[in-house]
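Quick illustration, no need to memorize.
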Amino acid sequence: MYPLRFGVSYDFRNPVDSGIANPDFYAAIIEQVKWLDQIGAELVWFTEHHFIDDGYLPSWAPVAGAMASVTENVRFNTDICLLPFNHPVRLAEDLAVLDNLSNGRVEIGLGLGYAPHEFRGFGIPKSHRFSLMEEGLTILKRCFTGEKFSFKGKRFTLNDVLITPSYVQKGGPPLWIATMSEAGADRVARFDAHILPQGLRHRAFEPWVQALEASGRHPKHYRTGIIRSVLVTDDLERDWSEVRVAERYRMALYRRFFEESNEGFGEKGEPIPQTWIVGDVASCVDQIVSFVEAFGITDMVTMAAPPGMPVHALNESLQRFFQDVVPQVRNRLSESNLQETRG
């Protein structure tokens, strides 16, 4: 069983009416991550989208490199990097450089993408996303071996590829794959990756567990990660209102994407929760413990700078999360595991 890890997530969305210049915005986030690295954060994740007027992060690798230079502990990952818009060999090279810059602190989470405007912008038919994903994953895994290879597929033809510099991490950065469907869950299992489930439990999570067990593997040998934000507060009325406005703004974009793509709506079932966890320390501990136990979560990150809010606005909550909530969550789960072992 993998140990629990907690951290933060950034999308770098800076609304056009925020009054904050993008260079100042980026600098403030990098300073925040430097501080978070010192108070116990273990993860920094990035999300990726393109052609959004508020500057939604389109290129996460430069940001990870900048953050690697001012941190010592946090590990960098994506939830998600959109593989159809990234040439797999070029991505493998970026990851090799990041792996060396960070001394082995980079991981990579990948997904298909679904927003129609992004495929139009890159001039890629949306129908190609499945073959681009499958071939891209195959190529990345070959890149991670550190051996020279060639490849011929429907979308890519490669000759004598050898990734240099070599990766610090043996076998390359840990590979994660996002899923919202049975086909996606099967893909995670086939590529022997860690899982980033979203959507409905019976579609995105349970088929992955079944696929692993059918092949003699066990979910405890893989990490399960999710973005689920936490607000630690003793005054809900005072602190939640501004976060709620930011969350409504954040989610409006995804609702537009879902409507345009006709994905993510209509089907009933138990969702994998990604709503905010809000409350005092004790309440947050209770909610996180229940969530972790229900889904076997190993990696959980909270939005550190919700769009439209000053970067530092949640610093008090973040400090309480990493210094008060996380240790108690670990203690509770350790005691629970010990009791199960004895039982």
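The CA atoms of residues 121 and 165 lie 32 Å apart.
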